[in-house]
Structures are given as structure tokens and as C-alpha cells.
Design goal:
This protein has 108 residues and is an alpha+beta fold. It is built from four helices and four strands. Helices cover 30% and strands 22% of the residues. The protein binds zinc ion (ZN) (2 copies).
Length: 108
């Protein structure tokens, strides 16, 4: 099915390291609303390392797009939903140790 190309990246050791390091550099604070709590009270903090230029079969081979910090943005789930709007896609949600805790599906 669609988006299999990005699933491999999100499951990779390299991406986890990059996402973790990037989130740490942002101090686990949403870059748009500066929300630290992300999903909500009582739940572990979660963040999404969003690709400003979304991954596509054409650009997954480009390290600067996939792993370049210039193309990354740390967002809470609310801002992330707002960014994507009606878009489709699939990204990884991480806990604060940088461990993937699920794949986020963007629906229309
Ligand atoms: Zn936010
Ligand atoms: Zn995103």
C-alpha cells in the first residue's frame, strides 16, 4: 500500500536517533505553541518530529530531506494536525526517550 517507503525510514535506527536528538535540541517543546504537555495530562509526553517537506517516493533517497534538521519540526499533536489539515501521510509518534510508540495516520 501507499506510504510503505516512509515506514521503513520511521522504523530505522538512524531516524530514531535523528528524531531523538532533534527533539532534545528543542527541549521537547512544541515549536509552534510551546506546549510541553503534548497529548494531555496523565499521559506520557509525546511528540511528533514532522518533516516540513513531506516524504515522498521521490525524496526519500535525499538525506537532507529525511535527516536534515532544516527540514524537521517538533510539534505537539494539536499543531501537527493543524499543519497537515486535509493532507494525507504517515509519521511516527515518539515518547520522550525517542522510542516510537506508534504510527500516526493522517486522514482527510
Ligand atoms: Zn503545539
Ligand atoms: Zn507531519
Amino acid at each position: 500500500m501507499a506510504r510503505a517507503f516512509s515506514k521503513d525510514i520511521y522504523n530505522s535506527q538512524r531516524w530514531r536517533k535523528v528524531a531523538h536528538a532533534y527533539a532534545e535540541s528543542q527541549h521537547y517543546v512544541c515549536e509552534r505553541c510551546h506546549n510541553r504537555s503534548f497529548v494531555g495530562a496523565g499521559k506520557p509526553p509525546r511528540f511528533i518530529v514532522h518533516h516540513k517537506t513531506h516524504l515522498s517516493p521521490e525524496n526519500v533517497g535525499d538525506d537532507s530531506v529525511v535527516y536534515g534538521w532544516d527540514n524537521l519540526e517538533l510539534l505537539c499533536i494539536y499543531c501537527h494536525n493543524a499543519v497537515h489539515g486535509t493532507g494525507m501521510g504517515r509519521e511516527c509518534v515518539f515518547d520522550d526517550d525517542g522510542n516510537p510508540i506508534g504510527i500516526l495516520e493522517h486522514n482527510r
